[in-house]
Amino acid sequence: MDWTAGYTSDIEYTAGFYREQSPAYLNLVCLLNGYESIATDRPYTYFELGCGRGLTSIILAASNPMGEFYAADFNPAHIAGARDMSSAASIGNLHLIENSFEDLATGHVPDLPQFDFITLHGIYTWVTAQSRQHIVQFIARYLKPGGVVYVSYNAMPGWSAALPLQRLLVEHAELAPGRSDAQMKSAAAFVRQLEAAQAGYFKANTGLRTRLDLLARGNANYLVHEYLTKNWQPLYFADVARDLAQAKLDYVGSAELAFAYPALFFTPDKLDLMNGIADAVFRETLKDYFLNTSFRKDVFVRGARAMPAMRQKQSLQTLNVLLLVPRNSVNLKIKIGMTEINARPDIFQPIVDAIAQGSTSLAELSRLPALKALPPGTAWQVAALLTASGQAAIYPSQQPGAPVETAQRLNRLIASQARYVDDFQALASPLFGSGMAVGYPELLMYLVLVENAGLRDALQLAQHVWGIMQASGRCMLKDSKPIQDSAENLAELHSLAKVTLEHRLPLWDTLRML
């Protein structure tokens, strides 16, 4: 019997962490868009559908003591690995479940509570129409009134030019024996042959370049799940919104924080055109035509309630902002999706200068002299853009009872795994109630620093890390190519070690990650 329902299951998916799924982040989306959210300073419940290898839910559970977290995937290898990691880190508020969407939707999993948050990343357009209906049924059955749903998915019309590419890969893979990753490799090589032969499809669709480059260099596990799923089908926003309306869900905004400010993306004439459309679903769909959207990150609420403007302002003012990158590396060319926003230095620089001094509340930023003549919400918008670009983070001013020990125990476990694999590239932050992406060499530096308390010499740190990398047959990359020379590897690591000691170590300490 085939239990996969057409979904790729012979190789594991990548172990990614997605900050948009965190309760604090979802609450921020609701708040920026003027909607009521979920109180997380008292007990709440959370469910991740299709959790893959579970890294997101594991990090969130370790960082949020008030939440009771559930995560399900039907691939037993995913759940087995996630349970091992959760158990090793002694995470007590995470329940990992191996069940299908149908099992969950029809109540075959006993003792599930009602949930405040339900999230799913990417999978909605990778599964059958029947599985999508089971997802909707699960949400209708288990989401609380006022509960928040996050769903990200491949979207139209941005995928329209690439639909024939995906079909070509699937058809070729069907002819090639072996595991999915071998099929993917063979199909990608065939695509390169067609491109070299100047097939008309590739000549006519020059915008495919990014996808073709990814096929050549991307992670095989990711590419298999992205392209070789037989039921793969990008959807229009209108399709998803109508599906979720069956569970009484209302769209409240995008998890791309900058989209809370439409004037950044649309000219006045486009805004006038959209605002002249009475139907909210069609209006939101039209945005994707203007932006040629290929991936959406949508937030819905079961019974969305608009927040009074004064209370929205008061709630936003209590949030804190922290700079995540060195002050001299802040980039005012902010890329959101396919759009690049050129930030005004006269507005951004004073705010960046302020948060570079340490965590600052939005209320304090709003009182900066440089902002006095500007609209009241300017500080919120700047903070949202810096957060959207990964250069800063907005977070609640108080994280009640943050489980420092649990999160730090998990972080040490993740870092220790970097001796053998580079799969898990994120660490938990109790301060944020979320996680933070950390690259493979940085993970090794984290590991060396926690194993060698007091080590503060950059060259020694680099030497320790290079020893671990050599033992596992790994090396640094430069211009996406492996560095072969040992001295050059050490030089690259030495430069990174200086940045780690000067910037990342104090930041990790502030985030309570150490």
Task: Compile the SSE list and pairings.
Blueprint lengths: L22 H10 L11 E6 L5 H9 L3 E6 L3 H13 L5 E4 L3 H5 L9 E7 L7 H14 E12 L8 H13 L4 H17 L3 H5 L4 H9 L2 H8 L9 H9 L3 E6 L13 H8 L4 H12 L3 E8 L6 H9 L2 E4 L9 E4 L2 E4 L2 H11 L4 E2 H5 L11 H11 L3 E4 L8 H14 L8 E4 L4 E4 L2 H12 L6 H14 L5 E2 L2 E2 L3 H25 L4
Parallel strand pairs: 1-2, 1-4, 2-3, 4-5
Antiparallel strand pairs: 5-7, 6-7, 8-11, 8-12, 9-10, 13-14, 15-16
Describe the protein's architecture and organization.
With 514 residues, the protein is of the alpha/beta class. It has four domains: 19-157 and 234-302, Vaccinia Virus protein VP39 (Rossmann fold, 3-Layer(aba) Sandwich), CATH 3.40.50.150; 160-227; 319-395, no CATH class; 404-510, no CATH class. The protein has 21 helices and 16 strands. It has helices at residues 23-32, 55-63, 76-88, 101-105, 129-142, 163-175, 180-196, 200-204, 209-217, 220-227, 237-245, 268-275, 280-291, 309-317, 345-355, 362-366, 378-388, 404-417, 440-451, 458-471, 486-510; strands spanning 44-49, 67-72, 94-97, 115-121, 143-154, 249-254, 295-302, 320-323, 333-336, 339-342, 360-361, 392-395, 426-429, 434-437, 477-478, 481-482. Strands 3-2-1-4-5-7-6 form a seven-stranded mixed sheet, with helices on both faces. A hairpin with a 2-residue loop joins strand 9 (333-336) and strand 10 (339-342). Helix 7 packs across helix 10 (220-227) and helix 19 packs across helix 20 (458-471). The longest helix is centred in the C-terminal third of the chain and has 25 residues, at 486-510. The radius of gyration is 23 Å and the shape is globular. The termini are far apart. The model has no long low-confidence stretch (mean pLDDT 92).
